[in-house]
Amino acid sequence: MSAKPTPHVAVVGAGVAGLVTALRLVGGGVRVTLLESSPRVGGKLRVSEIAGLPVDEGAEAILARRPEAVELVRELGRGDDLVHPGTTSASILSHGALRPLPAGQVMGVPSDLRALAASQVLSPAGLARVPLDLVLPETPRGDDVSVADFIGARMGREVVDRLVEPLLGGVYAGRADRLSFESTLPAVAAAARGHRSLINAVRGVRAKAPADPGPVFATLPDGLGSLPPNIADAVTEAGGEVRVNATVRELRRTPDGWRLTVGSARDPEALDVDAVVVACPAPPAARLLAEEVPAAARELERIETASMALITLAYPASAFRRTPPGSGYLVPSVEDRQVKAVTFSSVKWPHLRDRDPGLVVARASIGRVGEEHTLQRSDEELKAAAMTELSVTCGVAELPVDARVTRWGGALPQYDVGHADRIARVRAAVAAQPGLAVAGAAYDGVGIPAVIANARSAAGRILEYLESRGETKNDGEAREAEGARP
């Protein structure tokens, strides 16, 4: 009797979610084909040189206090390469001046009233409003509520506008009056269900944090954008296939599994597989699922995305009349500035500073949801906006020696009110289709560790499905195989 063929799984999208899904699947003894429409893997992780230094064009750090990303780097044999920030001290540009981010806050929600007052981020009236939270009756919120509605009701609108929204803006480029309190601030939201006062809820969150949690962030010396090619190499070394410039145009169920139509309309290729993981962003995922899983597609279509641009500028250190303030600063939208955040990469990361102490590299972020018109300007106009920002805040009076504009269209999914219920409906519809799973930043968190976690979960569901058909090793063996990887 001939041996049963190895099950074949297609993964659509080679961002972090797709790469991690593929790695988990090949570790489970599955034949994998990873399909990416663009010419490169990595999605929003990309690195290139600026003034001779490797500087990320997308996310530049992983959250080190959540284990998934650090564990992945170690699995790839690069654990010893991890580096940590020299400083995480950040500022808020509020009422026209850079002010320290107050101690005792969690994603901008304050718990230390003295530190909040000392920071001078809020006006006297805004500061006086905050402690009313301690005596106000409970604020009803139902299943979900916007960040602005709940925190504004407890602490006043200034806390929302000048603390919470700038921090959330760095993650989602979103608006606090639309973002889901439950989905974007889950730890605070959970704690707030057990406390009438939001201040006391945040104090509880902080009290539960480890006394010495270690560094908050980590990256790789050649840029976090070097991680996706490392994952892709591990996939191919384990027998998987990684294909770029391979657009999946259609996904249909067959009697034995799934058929993907890959390539151009003029020269389409049919790829038949036993199972599929759709690991691309919400808009293309919705298009692929429209025929076979219309209920999921409708929900995914409702997830809006924000576009942004990152302007990277390299200056001689002498150009700064004032030393760059810590790792960077955030700009509340109420300040009516074009730039929403600035990171001083060569201050934040000692390995960059050490490679060229005579340079200061700054990354300025422009673009929020609903402000796509700001990104319709030319690269030169965006550079000019970033240069103007640094001249105002840091007294920079020279031209940069190098500059780069990176545009990320529709890059950030918006976790608006009701997001968790929406994703539950997506997953319920997908789960009804044997051999199908979804993964990516649109579901359980936009941070790299969260994406890794849901990618591994999606791969696990596919392995369980294949095991139920007697087509692969059991899940315990799969985990063991993955853990045995060098």
UniProtKB/TrEMBL annotation:
Pfam families: Amino_oxidase. Its cofactor is FAD. One of its GO terms (molecular function) is oxygen-dependent protoporphyrinogen oxidase activity. GO terms for biological process: heme biosynthetic process. The keyword Acyltransferase does not apply. Residues 16-463 form the Amine oxidase domain. Pathway: Porphyrin-containing compound metabolism; protoheme biosynthesis. Signal peptide: none annotated. It is found in: Cytoplasm. Its main location: cytoplasm. InterPro entries: Amino_oxidase (IPR002937), FAD/NAD-bd_sf (IPR036188), Protoporphyrinogen_oxidase (IPR004572), Zeta_carotene_desat/Oxidored (IPR050464). It catalyses: coproporphyrinogen III + 3 O2 = coproporphyrin III + 3 H2O2. It comes from the Bacteria. Its EC number is 1.3.3.15. Transmembrane segments: none annotated. One of its GO terms (cellular component) is cytoplasm. Keywords: Cytoplasm, FAD, Flavoprotein, Heme biosynthesis, Oxidoreductase. Involved in coproporphyrin-dependent heme b biosynthesis. Catalyzes the oxidation of coproporphyrinogen III to coproporphyrin III. Belongs to the protoporphyrinogen/coproporphyrinogen oxidase family. Coproporphyrinogen III oxidase subfamily. This is Coproporphyrinogen III oxidase. It comes from Actinomadura logoneensis. The lineage of its organism: Bacteria, Bacillati, Actinomycetota, Actinomycetes, Streptosporangiales.
